[in-house]
User: Fold this.
Amino acid sequence: MPELPEVEALRDFLDDHLVGKEIARVLPLAISVLKTYDPPPTALEGTTVGSVARHGKFLDITAGQLHLLIHLARAGWLQWRDSFPAAPPRPGKGPLALRTVLAGGDGFDLTEMGTTKRLAVHLVHDPSDVPGVARLGPDPLADSFDREAFATVLGGVRRQLKGALRDQSLIAGIGNAYSDEILHVAKMSPFKLTTGLGDDDISHLYHAMRTTLQEAVERSRGVAAGRLKAEKKTSMRVHGRTGQPCPVCGDTVLEVSFSDSSLQYCPTCQTGGKPLADRRLSRLLK
Assistant:
C-alpha cells in the first residue's frame, strides 16, 4: 500500500505535471472507484488544476472550485501517460479504474490490481466532505507535530505501538510498512503498549518516526511515478524481508501474520530475542 512517503512523492510529481493545465475529461471506468456523484466528473471538464496537496494517504487535486480526492488503498496506483490510445477504454476490463486526460493529450490512469476493489475517488467542494479525510489525525511531518504533540496523541490511548502508529485517526499517513520500519529503528516491540512508554521512550520513538519518514521522502523525491514502488521495496530494513538477515545485528527477520496482513521485526533488536506469537495480532489490528 502506498504510504506517506510514496504519496508525497506522487504529490510532488503531479505538482510538476498537472498544475496550470486544463482538464479535458475524467472517465471513471470501474463501478467501484467513484464514491461521489454530485458534482459529476464532467464538472471538471475545462477547469484548470490549481494545486496538488496531500492529506495523509490521500492525494488532493484542486481544479477550479473542486477537489479530486484519490486514495490508492492497498493495490491502487497512478500511472502517468504522455498520450493515450485513440480508441476509448472499455469500462470494467482489466485493472484500469479511472482516466484523467488533459487538454494537451497527456494525463494519468488510476489502476487497481486484484479482485478486492478499494481504490477510492471523491469529487467534492471541500476535502473535509470526505469521511476518511475528516477523521485524519495530524501529519507526522508537519512542523506543528513536535515531540509534545506526539506524546499527547499516544497519551490519549491504550494501544499496542504497531496499531497506534497505523491508526489514521491518531497519526495520518503511516501504514503497515513504515510502522514496521519505525519500530525497528526505535528498537521497540510492535506489541509494546503505549501506556508503558516513558519520557525517553517517547522521545526515541518520535525521533525514529520523523527520521524514517523524512529519509523515505527524500529517497522518493524526483523518482518517476512508475518506479516508486520498486524504490520503496528496496529501501526497507525489515518490512517484507522475512527470513533475511537484519541489517543491524544479522539476526533473522521474523514475521507475524494476520488475515491478509503481516508484520516483520527483528527479535534481537526489538523483542529481547523472543519471537512474537501470531495469536496476539488479532488484538493489535483492531
Q: What stands out?
A: The longest helix spans residues 199-220. Residues 24 and 170 are 38 Å apart (CA to CA).
